[in-house]
Amino acid sequence: MKPHVLQLSPILIPSVNERLNALYQVHRFYEQADPEAFLAEQGAHIRGVVSGGHTGIRNELMARLPALQVVAINGVGTDAVDLAYARSRGIHVTATLGALTEDVADLAIGLLIATCRGICAGDRFVREGQWPLHPQPSAIPLARRFSGMRVGIVGMGRVGRAVATRAAAFGCPLAYTDLRAMPDVPHDFVADLRELARRSDALILCAAADQAQGIVNAEVLQALGPGGYLINIARGKLVNEHDLVAALQAGRIAGAGLDVFVDEPHVPPALLAMPNTTLQAHRASATWETRTAMGEMVLASLAQALAGQRPDNSLST
Ligand code: 8YV
């Protein structure tokens, strides 16, 4: 009999879904009309869970799955899983480490350039037929140069380093903060986030959110200053969104490029009306290439765990 696997968020790569379905009895939790009845009937059989980084799995649900051996996260962030609880039950929690680094870094730079150069506002101007109505060049305000901007990276893990490589190619002086300085990173380490913000024209958030909720607050944004940009491709909860909206409204920072939000898919309405924000629907890893690589890693983690091995990418065991 095929092992039972509970899927908490969809996978968008058909070949990965085909293999999941061929190897396992897959139950799509998000399609269950009566989740309670489903758990009562099937909960005891579930040996594997597949979820997304942002979705994770709540302890209450893990508690309903007594045979659970592995939670395979189709993503790199495990902040939505209680690793200590999983560890106490011997459950492997895996992530797709390394698979999405390049795409997430690409989007970080894309969001920064889009925001400081007003690319989306310019697109709307042309698309909405405003150009012939306002042909004078002054109809659109001059933008801000990206090349050479002082970039501060928050979190110098895989993604932070890939962002640094890209920004360096644009001639950007770089500094970073993390829990500690990293001897193999050739850029300035600044222990204090406020000080990093003060020294930066753009702050790019690349940190894990496990213990960093709300670290970008009013003081940090104040330090970033009226010429500064905030880019977030990590987790919405790193930012105090209320403080961010207030800072943008008051012109205390110049703009923000955001792929992630505190309460996805809900975006603070004030951000929607601002010309100096570039907004994405949590898409940093959403390419065919990366999602295929991620799906392969999910399949490998399930296979290893359900064969009784410790998966290569386990973060809990
Ligand atoms: C994915 C993410 O969009 O890796 C993560 O932690 O949040 C994203 O890259 C998500 O996990 C897709 O399921």
Care to describe what's here?
- By secondary structure, this protein is α/β, with parallel strands linked by helices.
- It folds into two domains: 4-99 and 289-306, Rossmann fold, CATH 3.40.50.720; 101-279, NAD(P)-binding Rossmann-like Domain (Rossmann fold).
- 36% of the residues lie in helices and 15% in strands.
- It has helices spanning 14-23, 35-42, 59-63, 83-88, 101-116, 119-127, 130-133, 158-169, 193-198, 218-224, 241-249, 269-272, 288-306, and strands spanning 4-7, 25-28, 46-52, 70-74, 92-94, 151-154, 174-177, 188-189, 202-205, 229-232, 255-258, 277-279.
- The structure holds 2-keto-D-gluconic acid (8YV).
Please give a quick description of this structure.
The chain is of the alpha/beta class and 317 residues long.
